[in-house]
Design a protein that fits this description.
Helices cover about 35% and strands about 15% of the residues. The protein has about 350 residues and is of the alpha/beta class. It folds into two domains: about 20-270, Type I PLP-dependent aspartate aminotransferase-like (Major domain) (Aspartate Aminotransferase, domain 2, 3-Layer(aba) Sandwich); about 270-355, Alpha-Beta Complex (Aspartate Aminotransferase, domain 1), CATH 3.90.1150. The strands form three sheets. Strands 1-7-6-5-4-2-3 form a seven-stranded mixed β-sheet, sandwiched between helices. The protein has a four-stranded antiparallel β-sheet with strand order 10-11-13-12, covered by helices on one side. Helix 1 (about 20-30) runs antiparallel to helix 8 (about 255-270) and helix 2 (about 45-60) packs across helix 8 (about 255-270). Bound molecules: ligand 0PR. Ligand 0PR binds near residues 15, 16, 17, 74 and 183.
């Protein structure tokens, strides 16, 4: 059988993953057979996880934050909802039949998984007319059984940043936890003016994924909590391991993900990520202008993600030409300007678009 090789990144415009930084790739390979789920046996990778969390905590504006490297944003979001459910409204256990989570309609589908797995009711509020959460609409859904109020800092479809301070206020009025999903945006937002992290609002938990804009190898997500009592909600006794308890959802975990996350942040925070943020945003702005010039309706790229109306014929022709492009739920073309997407690539893409007859 012929040995398979992965796809090239050169025409991938639809992914929130990217080529790992060379140091992250090397670290992933080196730590392939280690298990951070058993920190007393695999001490080095456990140290690297502590380093990675310290770096993530700094990036998210709260050096004392605690957390762990998850398998991705989905696990981090599920676990944050689990903390909220187990805390209950007003910090006590849930007394009603079903606790609920209030979120904008733009939340990633991982929250639907979380609600399903945890037996929570997910209430989603309509967005404002620029694809952002509308705190007034959200407040109508909050009641005495609300355990979490969620905001997105870098939404999956349109790259929007919700008004996090207003969402945190809503959560604290409801005595519910405030969770921010910065899975994708977290490595870009420190170089913008947005309010999104612990230092900007009373956030309790936050998702930030090294395997997206952090340039780490897959799988490396991140869950952060403001204080250890929150993370302790997840602790399960592990009687036969030397470590007493485990907060992660998965048991055996990828040492490759952990080591690569630590290596990527060691290499790139802050200057490398700043340079990346500037380059990716400039590329998104360039593409938005190029599409606009050609008469397509473009959604202004607040973060490096460009959405535009594109007729099916053009879309299909570009797919046919090998471009990996995707659509939003409402049918817009969606291009994520990840670090592997160069200006040259975008020029070729636009040239191919111009060729469609
Ligand atoms: N939160 C947000 C805001 C996300 O955008 C995503 C993933 C998640 C949570 C979940 O993260 P994990 O996929 O790490 O569990 N957003 C991308 C999406 O659904 C994931 C993705 C990545 C899709 C690479 C395609 C791809 O090639 O579009």
């Amino acid at each position: 059988m012929q040995r398979a090789s992965p796809q090239e990144f050169s025409r991938v415009l639809s992914s929130m993953c990217t080529e790992p930084h060379p140091a992250a790739r090397a670290a992933a390979e080196e730590f392939l057979a280690t298990n951070p789920g058993d920190p007393a046996t695999y001490e080095t990778v456990a140290d690297l996880e502590r380093e990675a969390i310290t770096a993530l905590a700094e990036i998210a504006g709260h050096p004392d934050a605690v957390g762990y490297i998850t398998s991705g944003g989905t696990e981090a979001n599920i676990q944050a909802m689990r903390i909220a459910r187990d805390r209950g409204p007003t910090g006590g256990p849930v007394t009603s039949e079903r606790a609920n989570v209030v979120a904008p309609a733009s939340v990633h589908f991982s929250f639907h998984k979380a609600a399903d797995v945890l037996g929570l009711e997910l209430r989603t509020a309509p967005l404002d007319d620029d694809y952002r959460a509308d705190p007034d609409a959200m407040s109508e859904l909050v009641d005495g059984d609300t355990v979490a109020v969620v905001g997105v800092a870098g939404s999956t479809e349109y790259g929007r940043v919700d008004p996090i301070p207003a969402i945190a206020d809503l959560a604290s009025e409801a005595e519910a936890l405030c969770h921010v999903d910065a899975a994708w945006g977290g490595f870009h937002l420190p170089f913008t003016e947005h309010d999104w992290q612990f230092d900007h609002a009373a956030i309790d938990t936050l998702t930030i994924d090294p395997h997206k804009l952090g340039q780490a190898a897959v799988p490396a997500g991140g869950l952060l909590a403001r204080s250890s009592d929150l993370l302790d909600e997840l602790a399960i006794d592990t009687p036969y391991l030397e470590s007493a308890s485990q907060a992660s959802l998965t048991g055996t975990r990828s040492g490759a993900g952990v080591a690569s996350a630590a290596a990527a942040m060691d290499e790139l925070w802050p200057d490398g990520y700043r340079e990346q943020a500037e380059r990716c945003q400039a590329n998104a702005d360039w593409l938005a202008a190029a599409l606009d010039e050609r008469g397509y309706d473009v959604v202004e790229p607040e973060l490096p993600l460009v959405a535009a109306t594109l007729p099916e014929r053009e879309f299909d022709a570009l797919r046919e030409a090998g471009w990996r492009i995707a659509r939003t739920a409402s049918g817009d073309l969606r291009i994520v300007c990840m670090p592997h997407v160069t200006r040259e690539t975008l020029r070729e893409f636009v040239t191919d678009l111009d060729r469609v007859e």
